Amino acid sequence: MEAPAGSVRGLPPEAEQEAEPGRFGPSLKLLAVGAVILLSVAYLVYINLGSAVAYYLTVPELLARAQAAGGVDRVRVAGWVVDGTVERSAGGGLRFVIEEEGARIPVVYRGVVPDIFAPGIQVVVEGDFRDGTFQAKTLLAKCPSRFEGGLPGQPQQN
Amino acid sequence: MAEFGRLALLFALGLAGYNLVAAVAGRRWDGALTSARNGLLGVAVLLTGAVAALLTALLTHDFSIRYVAENSSLEMPRIFVFTALWGGQAGSLLFWAWMLSVLAALAVWLHFYAEARLIPWVIAVLSGIQIFFLLVINFLTNPFEKLPVILPNGRGLNPLLQDPGMLVHPPLLLSGYVSWSIPFAFAAAALITGRLDRDWLPVTRAWAMLAWLIQGAGLVAGGWWAYHVLGWGGYWGWDPVENVALLPWLVGTAFIHSLMVQERRGLLRLWNFGLVMAAFNLSIFGTFVVRSGVLTSVHSFAQSSVGPAFFTFLGISLAASAALILYRLPVLRTQGDFESLLSREAAFLLNNLLLVGIAFATLWGTVFPLLSEAVRGEKLTVGPPFYNQVNGPLLLGLLLLMGVGPLLGWRRTSPAALLRDLLGPALAGLAVVGLLFAVGIRLAEALLGFWAVVFVAGTVFLEFYRAVRVRRRAVGEGVIPALFGVIGRNRRRYGGYVVHLGILVMAVGVIGSNFFKLEREFTVRPGETFSLGRYTLRFERLGEWTDPGVRNVGALITLVEPFERELLPYRKFYRNWEQTPASHIEIVTVAPWLEDLYVFLTGWAADGSATIHVFVNPLVPFVWVGAGVALLGGVLAAWPARQTRAVPAAVPARGVVAGGG
Description:
Chain A is of the alpha+beta class. In chain A, 24% of the residues lie in helices and 32% in strands.
C-alpha cells in the first residue's frame, strides 16, 4: 500500500479498483478483523475467568475465612481423607472428613467418585462451604500422573 | 548392566559437549563438521545402548537398580515390564533423550549436504538440548541408580499404567514433544546464519509435519486410553497435563498453515519463526509441567528434583529464542503486503490468530493458579467449563474459516464468486439443521455446530468435485481413478483436505458427546433393574476372582433392553497398589444409534449391593474414526514428495489447473 489512499477517490475508476472497494486498505481491514479476534479471545477469557474460578485454600484457611464471612462459596480445598470417616448412603451419596494441618471439615458429595478414592488418599473437593459442611460439586483424587512413590516395605500414608 | 548404562550416559554427555564445540568450529573447517555429525550418530548409538541396558535390567528383574524396583515387579506381564521403560520419571526422560538423539542424527544425516550452511548451527542447537537432558539424566534422576540392598521383588508399575494404551500413548506423546526440537533447530540456525528466506522452510515443514502427526496421534491415543480406563466417561478433561500436550500441537498447526503464506507470498516471516520457537518452548514447558508436578501439586512449587532444572532450561531457551528473533528483527520485517481481506493469505492469518488464541486461552487457564498466586497471593483455578466456554466459540470460528479459506484464491477473490461458492454448502447445512430440528433437536449450540460441519464438508466436497471434473476432462478417467489422481498429484493440498474431513468427523463426535451425553449413578441390589435413556440393565451379582498379583471384583450385569448382552465391569486390585485399583469398563458401541453405552463399577458394599455409573455417549465413535481419517490425511500431506520426477510425464499440461495449493 505504497500509494497514498486519499488520491484515489477523485480519479476515474480503473479496472483494478473494483477489487478494493472502500476507503481503507486491506491491511487495515485485516488488522481490524485480527483485532476483533484477539479482543474476542481476551473477552472470552476474561468473562469466563470470573465465572469459573474457585478459590484454592487450605483447610485451616477455609475455616478462618468461613468464620469471618459465615460461609465460602465456590471454593476448592485439598486434604487427606480421614480413615474411618467414609460413609456411603444407599442413594449414591458420599460423606467423609478431610484433614490438613490438623484441621478437619466434613464433606458431602454426590456424583462420580474417582477410581482411586479411599481413606488416606489426598483429594481436592470443589463446592460451597456452609454451616460447617462442605457441599462438594466435584471430587478429584490427586492426579496420579506422578507415578513415583515409596518402595514396598516403606510405610504408606495410612 | 547398570554400570554399562551409567557409562553410556556419561560418554553421551561428553560426546554431546564435543559435538557442540566441533559443530561451531565446523563452520570453517569441514573436518570438524563431519566429526560433529558422526558424533551426533555416536550419541544416538550410546543412548540406544543405555535404553537397551535399562530394558535388559527391567526384563531380567534386576532389583538392585532403583528404577527397576520402583517401576516393575516379578508378576507383572512381560509387556508391561517393557513399558515400564517410560513408566517412571528417569525412564521417560531417558526415552526423551534417546528419541532426540535418533531424530537429530537422522535429520542431520539427511540434510547434511543439502542444507550445508545451516547444518553447523543445527548440530550445535540439537547438541545443546541433548546436553541439558543428559545433565538431568546423569546427575538428577539417573535411571541406573543403585539401591543399597537388592530387593526380592519390585513395587510394580502403577496399575493405571498397566494397560495396552501404555504401549502407544506415552511413547507417541513423548516423541511428539521431542520432534519439535528439529524444526526449532533449523529455525534457530536460519536466524543465526541470517539465511532467512525460503531455505529453511521445506526442511522445517517436513519435520514440523512429522511432529504434528506424532503428537496428534499421541493426543488421540491419550484420549482413547482415558476413555477406556479412567471411568469418567469422557476422552478429554482439560487436565493441566493434557492441556500442556495440546499447546505445542496447536501452535504447530498454526505454523503448518502459515508457512504456506511465506512460501507463496513471502509474508509472515517473523510470525513463522515465532511459531516454531513457541512450539519448541511449549514442548519443554509441557515436559516440565508433567515432570515437576507444579500444577497438580497443591502447595509446593516443585517437589521433584528436576523441576528447577527444567525451569532454568526453559528460561534459557525462551531467552535465546527471543534474542535470536530480536537480533534479526530488522531483516525479518515483511517485504510484501496483504492485498485483500478476501484472500487465502488473509484467511490463513485469521486461522493462525484463532489457533494461537485457543492456545493462549488454554495456557492462561492452565497456569492461572500460579499467576493468581503470584499476583493476589491465593490460588484460583479454572475447570472444564472455562475451557469449553472460551474455546468452543473459537473452535467454531476456526471451523468456519476451514470452510471459507480453501475457496479463496491467493492475493484476492471476487466477492461474487465467493458467495456463489458458499451458497450451496450453506444451504446444505441449513437443510441438515432443518432435518435435525424436525427429529427434535433444539439445542442452538449443537444445531449451529452441525450446520458448520455440513457447510465445511460441502466446501471441501466442492474442491474435490472441481478438481476431479477437471482431471476427468483432461485425462478421461473414471471418477475414482480421477480422485486418486487428484490426491496423488497434489498430496499436500488434498491430503490437507482429508485432514479437514477427519476433523469434521471428529467435530460431529465432539458435538454429540458434549451436548447429548446422559449419565447417572445407580446403587442397586442383586436382581434390581435400572435404566438410562433407551437402555435397561439388571444387576445380577458381585463376583471376585484372582489373577497373578491381582484381585478382581466385578459386577455381573445383564443388558435387558434394547437387546440382551452380559456385561462384567470390574476393578483390579494389584499387589502393593490396593489403594488405586484399575478398572475394566464395559463399553458397548450400539451401531444403530452411533453411541456408546458405558458401564463403570464405582463401588460395592458388604450387603452385596453395587454402585454402577452408566453413561450414554452419543457419537463418540465418530471421534476415533475422524481422528483416524485426519491422521491418514496428515500422512498423505506429509509424505516426502518424489522430487516431482514422474509428474510432468504422467499428466498433460491442462491438468495443472488442479494443482497449485
